[in-house]
């Protein structure tokens, strides 16, 4: 008997202009712009990310049984160009959920990144042919393909809830998540942080960076 797979409606795609603004930023700025707790922790770039590259796109959420990638295959078949495939698998790293073949296929579908709360394999192939991959680990052990799973429902990845259509900002520091309904507000705050950091960099170079707040916040007591 076929395995169960619930599928919720696809979310509207974000305006290209918003995606472009976020691509000029970084996951750390987005994190700061949303109160420093927007990140999916424990996921790092594993393959395919170029130095300095920032990948942005709306989440296509996938929930799968740990160690099984049947619904991940289904998601790749129906993903829309520009989406980031987000695979929630409970952070288990005992079996890889995708590898080089699936990475190559994802690239042909226009998927811009693969975010896996679990392990992947075929790292060198992924590096060559896949959109950037963010995951919690690597293992040579391959997945089962039995299901079940869920598509476009809410998922928990690295300690945060990600809903289908939320915006992900993925770079060398990891994966930041912007809830869809707060996209404009958080993007503007991240842009403001970009500008204030530029001013701070100038001050550092000129030797005028304000350090007074440290002694105001700290009582140093010398001991011998
Ligand atoms: O066998 C699988 O499903 C995963 C894999 O290694 C690949 O995509 O190359
Ligand atoms: Mg493989």
TrEMBL record:
For the keyword Metal-binding, the answer is yes
Q: Is Protein biosynthesis a UniProt keyword of this protein?
A: no
Q: Which InterPro entries does the UniProt entry name for this protein?
A: RraA/RraA-like (IPR005493), RraA/RraA-like_sf (IPR036704)
Please list the reactions this protein catalyses.
Answer: 4-hydroxy-4-methyl-2-oxoglutarate = 2 pyruvate; oxaloacetate + H(+) = pyruvate + CO2
The prosthetic group or cofactor this protein requires is: Mg(2+); a divalent metal cation
Q: Which residues bind substrate?
A: 99-102, 121
Q: Name one GO molecular function term.
A: oxaloacetate decarboxylase activity
EC assignment: the record states: 4.1.1.112, 4.1.3.17
Q: Binding of Mg(2+): at which residues? A: 122
Report the superkingdom from the record. Bacteria
**Keywords linked to the UniProt accession:** Magnesium, Metal-binding
Q: What class of enzyme is it?
A: lyase
| SUPFAM superfamilies associated with the record | RraA-like
Q: What does this protein's UniProt record list under function? A: Catalyzes the aldol cleavage of 4-hydroxy-4-methyl-2-oxoglutarate (HMG) into 2 molecules of pyruvate. Also contains a secondary oxaloacetate (OAA) decarboxylase activity due to the common pyruvate enolate transition state formed following C-C bond cleavage in the retro-aldol and decarboxylation reactions.
Which family is this protein grouped under?
Belongs to the class II aldolase/RraA-like family.
User: What does the subunit section of this Swiss-Prot or TrEMBL entry state?
Assistant: Homotrimer.
Please report the name of this protein according to its UniProt entry: Putative 4-hydroxy-4-methyl-2-oxoglutarate aldolase
Q: What species is given as this protein's source?
A: Blastococcus haudaquaticus
């Amino acid at each position: 008997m076929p395995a169960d797979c619930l599928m919720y409606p696809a979310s509207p795609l974000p305006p290209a202009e918003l995606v472009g603004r976020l691509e000029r930023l970084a996951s750390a700025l987005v994190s700061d712009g949303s109160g420093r707790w927007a990140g999916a922790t424990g996921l790092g770039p594993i393959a395919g990310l170029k130095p300095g590259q920032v990948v942005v796109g709306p989440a296509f959420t996938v929930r799968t049984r740990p160690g099984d990638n049947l619904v991940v295959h289904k998601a790749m078949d129906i993903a829309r160009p520009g989406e980031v495939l987000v695979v929630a698998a409970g952070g288990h790293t005992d079996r890889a959920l995708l590898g080089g073949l699936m990475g190559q296929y994802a690239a042909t579908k226009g998927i811009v990144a693969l975010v896996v709360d679990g392990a992947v394999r075929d790292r060198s192939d992924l590096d060559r042919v896949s959109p950037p991959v963010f995951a919690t680990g690597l293992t040579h052990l391959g997945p089962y393909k039995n299901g079940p799973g869920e598509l476009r429902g809410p998922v928990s990845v690295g300690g945060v809830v990600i809903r289908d259509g939320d915006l992900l900002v993925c770079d060398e520091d990891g994966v930041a998540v912007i809830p869809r309904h707060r996209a404009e507000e958080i993007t503007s705050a991240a842009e403001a942080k970009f500008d204030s950091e530029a001013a701070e960099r100038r001050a550092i170079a000129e030797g005028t960076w304000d350090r007074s707040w440290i002694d105001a916040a700290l009582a140093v007591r010398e001991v011998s």
